[in-house]
Amino acid sequence: MAKRPPSSALRNFLRSEAAGGILLMIAAALAMVAANLPATHDLYHAFTQYETGPVLTPKLGVMTTHLWINDGLMAIFFLLVGLEIKR
């Protein structure tokens, strides 16, 4: 008979259906605080405007972290939402 590891509070939280939504709300709140505090405003702006990745078109220029977040991560988010709705 195999022993099961003790269940932790973190493991129980991550198994709940609300865990993803709660983590997204915490991340959004932290981003708003970081963007609006005088001490971290310049750092946050520099992070979001950091140029990385290929040049998609001459009009758009080099991709920034802001574009990666808007285009890449939002595409993944809506893919997961669509998969969840289909279920």
Write the layout of secondary structure elements.
Blueprint lengths: L8 H7 L3 H18 L1 H11 L2 E5 L6 E3 H22 L1
Antiparallel strand pairs: 1-2
Rg over CA atoms: 19 Å
* Series of H and E elements: HHHEEH
Task: State the major sheet.
Answer: 2 strands, antiparallel
Globally, the shape reads extended
Alpha carbon gap, first and last residue: 35 Å
- Helix coverage percent: 55-70%
Mean pLDDT comes to 84
Range of strand content: 5-15%
Assembly type of the chains comes to single chain
The beta-strand count equals 2
The strand line-up of the biggest sheet is 1-2
Query: Uncertain spans, ≥5 residues at pLDDT below 50?
Result: none
Quick overview:
With 87 residues, this protein is mainly α. It has helices spanning 9-15, 19-36, 38-48, 65-86; strands at 51-55, 62-64.
Explain what you see.
The chain has 87 residues and is mainly α. Helix content is 67%, strand content 9%. It contains 4 helices and 2 strands, in the order αααββα. The protein has helices spanning 9-15, 19-36, 38-48, 65-86; strands spanning 51-55, 62-64. A two-stranded antiparallel ribbon has the order 1-2. Helix 2 packs across helix 3. The radius of gyration is 19 Å and the shape is extended.
Feature tags:
4 helices, mainly alpha, extended, two-stranded antiparallel sheet, 9% strand
